[in-house]
Amino acid sequence: MRNHVTMLVLTLLTALVGAAFADGETSPGVAPLIKMNDGHYIPSFGLGTWLGVDRTNGTLIQVKDDSVQRAVEIAIDAGYRHIDTASVYNTEEQVGTAIRNKIAENLVQREDLFVTSKLWNDRHKREDVLPALQETLTKLGLEYLDLYLIHFPISQYNNGTYYEADFLDTWKGMQDVRGRGLAKSIGVSNFNLTQMKRLLAMSHVKPAALQIEVNLNLQQPELIAYCKANDIAIVGYTPFGSLFHNKAKKDAPPPRTDEQALLRIADKYHKTIAQVALKYIMELGVIPIPKSVTKKRIEQNIDVFDFNLTQEERDVMKKYNNGYRVISVDMWRDSPDYPFEKPTAQE
C-alpha cells in the first residue's frame, strides 16, 4: 500500500512541477547527485539498458522491438536522469530516440540527463577511440556523452582474435575525446584492483568512475574501498544478482526473493526485496543501474529514497557476499587482461 501511495505522490509532484516549468525549464530527477573527482555530477541511481544474455546459448539478447526506447521514456517520466548504454548492447539508437522524445515534450533538457556509453573491445587502439565515440554519438543523436567508459580491459577483435593494445594507451585515447568535449567525464568498467592501481600509477588523469558488478553475492569490498579512497565513483550493474528464481543459474547461491531474513526487512519498510537490495547497494556507496523494460519495475526500482537500513540489517545482507559472479565472461579467461577471479564455492 505504501508503495502505491509513494508513487501517487511522485506522480502528483511530477505533474505539479511540470506545470510550474511549462516555459521550457525542467524539473530535477528523483536521485540526488554525487560529485565526481573531475567536478561533474552523476545521479546516484540510473537505468541500465543491457538486455542480458540468452541462457540457452550464452549470446547477447538482441533488440527485437522498441521496448528499450519505451523503458527509457518511462524511466525519465518516473524521475530517472541517469541512463546507461554501450555500443555492444545495440540499444544506443533507441536510447537516443527516447531522449529526443522527452526533450521534445519539454520534460527534460539535454543538460538534465546523464548519459553513459562504453567503448568496445575491438576499438582499444588510441587512434580508434575517437571514431568509435563518434559512431556512438551518431547513433544516440547527441553531441556529447556525460560519461564514456572502457567497457573491458580486454583487447579483442570481433573474430575472437586478441591483439596488442595496452589499456594505458586506450586511456590516452579516452583523454583525447574528453579534451575535444565529446565526453565530459571518462572512466573504466570491469577493471580489477590490480588494473586500477596500474592505471592510477601510470596516468595523471584519474577515472571519474568505475562500473562493476555489485549485488548481494558480489559486494567487492576491497575494490570499492580503494575507489572511495581515491575519489572514484562506483557504478554497480546487475544489482539484483541471482535474486529472481527465473533468472538465477542452477549453481547460484542464495538469497532469492523468498529468503525469510530479507522478507522480514522488506516487510518492515513496506518494500520489495529487490528495493531492499538496491538500498543496501546504495549504502555501500555504489550507484545502482538496474535494468528493466517493465513500467511497474522501473518505477519501483527508484522508489528507494524514503528509508534507511539499520546496521543490523546491513550485517544480515553482508553475509551473502561470497564472490559469486553473474557476469563472469568465461570465454575470455585466456586473455592476459582477464579481470576476474574464479567464483568461490558456496560455503
From TrEMBL:
Locate the site labelled Lowers pKa of active site Tyr.
118
Q: Which residues form the active site?
A: 89 (proton donor)
Q: Which UniProt keywords apply?
A: Oxidoreductase, Signal
Q: Which residues bind substrate?
A: 151
User: What Gene3D superfamilies does UniProt report for this protein, alphabetically?
Assistant: NADP-dependent oxidoreductase domain
Q: Which SUPFAM superfamilies match?
A: NAD(P)-linked oxidoreductase
**Which positions make up the signal peptide?**
1-22
Q: What is this protein called?
A: NADP-dependent oxidoreductase domain-containing protein
Q: Where is the NADP-dependent oxidoreductase domain positioned along the sequence? A: 46-319
GO terms assigned for molecular function = oxidoreductase activity, acting on the CH-OH group of donors, NAD or NADP as acceptor
Which organism does this record belong to? Chrysodeixis includens
Pfam name, any one: Aldo_ket_red
Q: Does Protein transport appear among the keywords?
A: no
